[in-house]
User: Fold these one by one.
Assistant:
Number 1:
Amino acid sequence: MAQTRTMSDDIGIIGGSDTGGGPSRLTSFRVKVAAGLILLLAAVILALGYLTYEDSAEALAERVAEEITQVTATATLRVERLTAGLAGNTLALSQSPAVLNAAEAPNAVPLSSALRDSVAKLFAAFARNQPSYVQIRFIDERGMEVVRVDSSAGMVRILSPDEMQSKAHSPYFNAGMQLKFGEVHISPMTLNRENEKIEVPYRPMVRSVTPVFNADGARRGVVVINDNPTDLLRELSVPMGEVYVLNENGYFLRHPDRSKEFGFDLNTDYTIDDLRPKLAQKIRLESDQLRVMDTVGSDGVRRIVAYQKIRYNPTNAADFWTVLVDVPRAVAVAPAAALRGRIALLGFVILALASIIGFVLAGRLSARIVSLAAVSRTISTGDLNAQAPVKGSDEIALLGRAFNDMTASLRQMRVDRIKREEELKRANASLEAFSYSVSHDLRAPLRAVDGFAEALDQDFRDTLPDDAGRYIARIRAGARCMGQLIDDLLILSRVERRDMVMNSVDLSALAANTAVELRNLDPSRSIEIQIEPGLQVRGDEHLVKILLSNLVGNAWKFTEKSANARIEIRRVRDGSGKSGIEIRDNGVGFDMTYANKLFLPFQRLHSDKEFSGTGIGLAIVARIIERHGGWIEAESEVGRGASFKFDLMRRPDV
Amino acid sequence: MKSGPILLVEDNSDDEALTIRALRKANIANDIRVARDGAEALDMLFGSDKFFPSIVLLDLKLPKVGGIEVLQRIRNEESTRRLNVVVLTSSDEGSDIERTYDLHVNSYVRKPVNFEDFATAVAQVGMYWLLLNEPPPERHAV
């Protein structure tokens, strides 16, 4: 495609470039703003929710820990009260007058019914008073039951003498017979056995035993109270969690699942080690202090646990029970989780509202930007009177005002530009009119001068003196010279005005044409013209032609007087990579001292006598080079020819 | 030799004299009628005592009515549409050349400053158009 360069190209403020803003983009902007707002809000709500949850969960966990500490302490107290009461009552019965009287009875003789009755009455009264006492007995030194009162569901029964059993081999009897005065043995808790068999339904049993002495200090037997602690054990409870009671071997005495209790009696062998091995270890090693901890169990569940040991047997410190309270942390902090749920719900509602508001706000914002974009597009089509909305005091209004300032200055610039263009047009027009009239009006008188001088010479040659003939010749030479000058000036002015059409130009062919034209003008000249084939330049063909005809014409002219005249046209490259077209001749050359005047109009380095010329040719050449943005340089030595190197492209900086 | 008159449209009396001299020197004996401006030329071609010239030698820069306009009228009128018109002018402005060729001028000759060249040009024009070229048939407006 041909490229046309004109002066008006310099000013190109208003381009029709597409701003590229489609409605879909704007929607996405709107969504982006809304989404950003929502994300921000969501993050805030999330953070708030999390912090609130963590905070309240921590507080709740602490509160639960305190609560179960209290539950543990209370449970411990109740168990201790049970055993203490049991021990106290056993001791009291063993030292009651009825029992002491019975202890004074002779050995190996059945007790008198009176003595028996008074003891039984006492025991029955106690049993009635303490519903958990299921048996109160007096056993003689041989291990034979002497008095026995059974109590079940509020019914107290005094057993007859023939219902008495021997307990000589019972561990509690033997343990009791070993005790000193005032000592009480409290047995481990086991399931009750009748006739060596575990009674069904199971009844856990704790036995309290103390010896009975007669006045001589001899052991006459023991008083035994059987206590069924079921009610107490079952009463131990904690909201949200579980209360366990263990014996010293880790067997459960209380477990929410009753089948897991009394593993040693029922041969299930289920212990705390099966439930919480790590905790079991801890309990075994810890002191009797009440412990509370927030821990992750072997099952991976986080729990809050509290436990305390109870040394229930005054006569054997190795016996202990453990009260263990266990609350899963998740359950403990469930209220916080509920709160979290409510926060989430609230957050969702806020987010929904925020989305709507954000979308609407972003929509308004984007609508304003869209209207600005529309104004901008209008402006880009060249309508500089379009006004951007400037309502409000925010950034978009500011942008709008900046927009309007910009269009105002664009309007001013356009006015200025149009004015300049008109001035330029006028200047161009007057230049054109000038050269047109030069073309016509300056030539006509010259032609008259030359024509009539010739007519004079032809028609009156015979009558004119010789001098007149020579003067006529001078008149005609002057006229022709001026004609040439006018022609050259016109070329120069046209070179100036021409709209250049840039193309790839076959310089070799143009040079060859020029050479042919020159030879036709003066066929008598013997001259060698060498043209490198395939020389290409990029430029305006018409101007390149003028350029060549001037440069080759000069070479032709200045080799006129040389023997073996020769002109060379070729591409040359120097060491620094500079490449150009060279036109070299072996003519008269010129003095480099005046090289700086070479390309100025009307500057001649040779007299008219030597070579004719107007002094405009190289000015034309220079102007053509200049219009192409190229470069030219001349080199010569007087008598040794001249070389002109040029290129139509910018010279690479070296 | 074709006997029709030559119409020379030329406002400059020097050029007129030189042109006539050059034609006579070239032994062209046709009657030469001169119009000194465009209006006069049009009158001679379209007026009451109009005539059909064998050739029109037309200058471009003319008083009253310019040469381009004269050419335009000649080409627009049925009676003169085929006239041989040779522009003989000092101008070698590209725009002038383009416009006259657009109006189907038969030749465009620049008047050289140099009289010999001028005489040669005029003589060649005369020889070609009057001696060698077969002229168009004369037509009269209906």
Number 2:
Amino acid sequence: MKLAHEKRTEEQETIRVTIDNSRITGIHQNRPLRTAYRVWNGSSVGFHFQNGAADDESGFAQAAENLYIGRAYPFPPESGTHSRDLSKQQLSETELLSIAQDCLDYVAANYPCYRFFGYLEQTRKTEHWENDNGMDYSSTDCVSTIEIAFCPGADEKAAADRFSLHFRTFDRTRFERAADFFLAAYDREIPVSEAQEILNRGPVLCLRCSELLPSLNQFLDAGEMKRGSSLLSQKTGERVFSERFTLVDDLSDEGSWLNRFWDGEGFVRKHEKLTLIDRGTVVSAFSDKELAEKWQIPHTQGALPNPRGLTYRIGGQNLRIIPDGRPAKELLGERACIIPLTACSNTPASGFQSDGSLSVTLYSSLLYHHGQVVGRFPSFIETSSLFELFGKHYIGVGADMPGGPDSRLLFIG
Amino acid sequence: MYRFPKALYADVRIEDSYERFLSLSTNNSLRESESNSGRQAVVRVFDGERWFTSAACAPEKVQAELDRLAALATPNPGIEEHPLVRKFEVHRARLLKYESEENIHKIPIETLVSFLEGYRGQAHTYMEEHPLMTKWTGTLQLKHTVHRFYSGKGADLVWDSQLCASSFLCCAGANDTIICFGAPTLNELTHRENEMLAEMDRFLDYETRAVNLEAGEYTCILGPKAAATLVHECFGHGFEADLALETALYHNEMSLGTKIANERVSVCDNGALPLFGYTPYDDEGTQAGERRLIRGGVLCQRLHDAGSALLLGEELSGNARAKNASSLPLIRMTNTSMLPGTDDPQAMIAEVEDGLYIYRISYGYAGTHIRLYPDEVYRIRKGRLCEPVRVHSLHGNLFEILQQIDAVGTDFEIDNSFCGKMGLEIPVSNGSPSIRIRGLTAD
């Protein structure tokens, strides 16, 4: 059989302005160009990955050499034309330097007792996949991130806390609001005795969705569910979580930074949003072509892209909890809320473990009450489990977020 | 040669790499062969105040990038006298060790598949005889890199490195272990099937017989494999100067000249050795050599890049290492070893009334408190190795542990592996003999 050829290109430009000890110390540009070559002979696939400038003839030849091992893949390449460009603003090096200096000036002027570290970084990425079966996909995005770490000026032993914001169009007001949120009351330490009282009363705890949700993929792998090795095995159609909890994989979400809209096999979902848990009921799971064929289940774009190789994990690229429409103030009511500055899972793989347990050390948090930050909360450990956290302890994701929309905080209590 | 900008410091690093991965499983559910290659450069310009860098650029665009970055910088006529610039070493050398038939480019794919099939055949037979072993996957990773470094001060270096690593994932029910062998050439990895089978036997025996251990404080003997992980976590990472700078430990507990460990303890890092951490010149052009981190328990030296060496007023050590030409150098260990002592390993066990023998540690974390997650642990009773026991983790205060090392064996072993600091994996080697620690907490 004649070989089918597929070329996957990823072109990226990252410019980072670094801040060290309250001054700008450098500007770093990184422009990786990555090309993956795949050849398919009807039953097997061969693969070669090239960093930097690529020569197609040599790339496909090396991929063809790798057919020797016989890596089985019976599915023909995808086809079709799809394109998406989410970029809104592309800043020059000079503009980035100027914005970084402005942000630094703001925090240094308003919070002079701190030393600041961190960076402002802009990443523009274009992915392009094409093959001789008519596939022509491209996806472009340009996202900037500012991360400010801060520590009390005189104390060299103090560990830095940090906040960060992502944006497609820089918004200075948003930056200032976030800086004020995190810094204004940071120097007021909540005494341990007061903190213990708050903990005894059962405060609302916020967890960052971005840190927690990726670990849900392991429970939503359709293969593991069919094999009986997922905690959600045999649960499809059953309501096992709070009816306020709806989980989707949403590639159209504006917080889906630098993602593409196809999966690792080049498959494009008919709808960008896949509902996995609908008001507490498990309704679908992630599968790739092989799992869908093997178990005769719907194919749900579950191959997580791996640009550097053939092996991929199963899961969603952009898991989201649907906010229930109420603002944070309404969700919290009169209760105090603990918002983590730094969170660290107690286990090497962050998030939920395969048995559904979760243990998080909140080294540094802010106490938030009646719409404002009261002070810095001492370190404590929170433990929970999958079914408790999204079940009886689940409150919701607010329509607005203390600290800005990037926080995407999940409230449990 | 490049036209380096005047009144600025600049350097150029170019990497030309070729990498190959193969994987096979006994049931053929996994058969993979992938190759990666790349030729990229990093250009850096320094004006005395700020660094301007461009990574992952095409080597043919280096001159243009040098000119562009120089235009962003502010010329500084006194740059040569800047203390950081004065720190950078200037060497000229050509060290190409792997141009022979042992270069991985020259090994045909048939040979590589046959290499892995040999191990797979042995594993398959073993699994037929031992049905409790449910899964085996073998992986072969080969990488050859040519490194070039040039600087405006006159550095002109070309050197190459090569690594070959085979790893075997073995599963018994829900538990698994990874057996790894590493060497600079493939020849050094052949005919080690019996070692793999012995490790599989040990793992299976451990999984079938291990009992839970009562938590508490135990005298622990770390065999060479386990101690090598301790060396990596405690001495490798512990002596990377960025940690000292982050925690300000260098002011007190870890200031040079402090006796921080038992006098039996001597540790060195040496990037010149032809092991996985081979880095004869680091990514700032500093020449490697033996760096004695601890001599007779006394802290002598730390691992540095030029910036940290300048900040702490210490000597360069040749430990500025980047993962590749897409990333900037960080302070990274190379080949780190605790030097062999004079104690007989068997006698070390015989002297323990009630303790633990740690065969292997899968990973650990070290700061001022160290936590290690062991894979295979055996109880020592009345000076003899007894039943295997399950231990979640071993931990203790770093400085107390270093003082509590009371025996260092003669059975030195090297473990070629990888370090994933800040998600940037690079090859390193860790070496150690058996060591005995009085008082590690097991839970």
